[in-house]
Give the backbone structure.
Amino acid sequence: MVFSVVTAGCDTEVIPKEKAAVISLRVVAPGLWPPTSAQRVIVRRGLSGDLGEVVAEYSQPPTPLTVTPHLDVTAWLGVEIVDAAGQLVAAGRTPLLIVRSDDGDREIVIFLAAKGGAHPLVGVDSSPVVLPARIGSTATALPDGSVIIAGGGEPGQSAGKEAGAELSPCKIGVPSAQVASIMRLDPHQHALTELSKLKTPRAFHGAAALPGNRVAFVGGYQGTAASKAVSVLSANQGTLKSAAFGLSVARVGPCVVAVGGRLVVIGGQGAAAGTAELWDQGSGTLASVSLGGQFEAPSCEAAVDPVSGAQWVFVLGGKSGPLGSFDVVLAVDGSKLTLVGQLPAASPAATFEALAVTQAPFGVLRAGGLTPGSAMADVRWLALDGSSYKSVAKLSEARGCSARGVVGRTLVIAGGTPGKGQSAALDLVDLADRTVRSVALPAARSGGWVVPLSSGAALVGGGTADGLVLTLP
């Protein structure tokens, strides 16, 4: 298709020379849209995996805001607001979609997220999306842009052997009111609906995406008992099936990462804390390995060694040894799972840190964390060819037990506890230059999760606070 560019004052728009479907963009962004007179609107379109091209720019966006998309290919549409200096104010884009050559005109919703801010996730009617506080729940982003939220329980008091004791994301126990619902957040409408139900209510389990828009749920508390059961959800069909093979040992609070369509399931509580296993849906546990220490509630991340090309899994934090004293690296090679070795210890040691693997240069970053009687604000980084951690920055507030996740090249650290109470701090750590930007959450919270949305924004939820929060790293 051939395009020409028409200039009218300061506004430009790419106009197709031949008839094609015209998409009307309905922008939903309370407090951000419509833009001010000092701001400009940029409309983009792009193919899967690219940064897109500018197809229109407005000082005063028209109503309706329209664009001609790429046709018959997987693509996306996006809208940005920039200030007078060209700095990004807000942005959003659609999930990947296909507009056919013979499709008619239609409307598509785009939700914007603020750069340097955080606000409640809203639906098409601009009302906040409702999700009750859930500790021990999981959220899994899928290739189609949807997010699957499963299980969890109410914060409060434990119902297990320590019945009546305080229960929080930092004190894993049996929630007194567990839920079985599996919810799906639709990326096109931001509608949260129940997709299926777990066979029994479950909390402090692990979850990871499998090929075919599937999600595996492993271990956790089912009632008051630790479980080794595995269930697999087909998000396309909305069906949940129990896997024929469970884990080799019951695990509560494990970390789970998918590698090549299989799961590496790591740590947990009790006897499970010292081992990891490689699990396959068709065969069960293929391999198990000792971690050399106890890893309760660890973080884990898969990464490819930039030199050898080996598939590694970093096991970071948790309660290793007496108090988060070391991390380990595992190698996955086909059906083999082996312990590569330990990483240098971080000193002072802390638990419930925010952790991530960095690329270029290859290393490990850890931020914040809880120490006996206090919390840390230090951001520390270890180059894998180095011998010790170096302090490279500080969080806006000393705390641990935050919701944390990697979105793009940013480690998002939301809320947490300074030791007592909860935090409303939101820190965005750039994994490339290891600098920190800080904003505020709408409300204080601890625990929970952070997952990436197809729009490029980060979604914060779960833990001790109601609702969902959106921010643009």
